[in-house]
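Hi L.,

You mentioned the student needs an example of a multi-chain input paired with its predicted structure. This one should do, with 225 residues in total across all chains.
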Amino acid sequence: NAGVTQTPKFQVLKTGQSMTLQCAQDMNHEYMSWYRQDPGMGLRLIHYSVGAGITDQGEVPNGYNVSRSTTEDFPLRLLSAAPSQTSVYFCASGPGHITYNEQFFGPGTRLTVL
Amino acid sequence: GQQVMQIPQYQHVQEGEDFTTYCNSSTTLSNIQWYKQRPGGHPVFLIQLVKSGEVKKQKRLTFQFGEAKKNSSLHITATQTTDVGTYFCAGGDNQGGKLIFGQGTELSVKP
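Structure written out for the whole complex:
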């Protein structure tokens, strides 16, 4: 199993550009989520999904969209990139109920917005 | 909204010294998880605590969940250079569906 994969590993955008961060898992996990990590801020939840076709907002959803058309994939879309979105983005997945199951994290995408 | 505060933000220790990081929540948690992130890496699950007052041990690591399920701690006995990294707690909200992370404690160990 590849586990949780994320692409790209690194990305540089200009302000106003849009892009999609890809996340896929091959463990048949119901739960998937996106976090951003900034120095001194820990991991902040952006959006999450408890199953295909179901998504919900986390702590910092503004400027990001998600969709979950399949169990395996959970892409994160930046609609109009801003310098404040410079961060490291982690995708995670877990079996069953989020709060009672181990979360498996992907390797992360380091995004810089100029 | 629910917040999980973690202290200290940084801890520098000499190899062999003990280390403790603390988490406090503004609300009662359904459970708490602990993760470790090595420099340049991604968070990796260590353990989960669910019951009030629960204590679990993994070799030199001791995890505690408070009686009121609002606080937790991770204690490492006799640190080693392999313990270097950032330790995060993550609390489950009682509505179910969110795992809220603390800010993390970055541990450095001087040989």
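You could point out the following to them. The CA atoms of residues 15 and 111 of chain B lie 5 Å apart. DSSP finds no helices and eleven strands in chain B.

Best wishes,
N.
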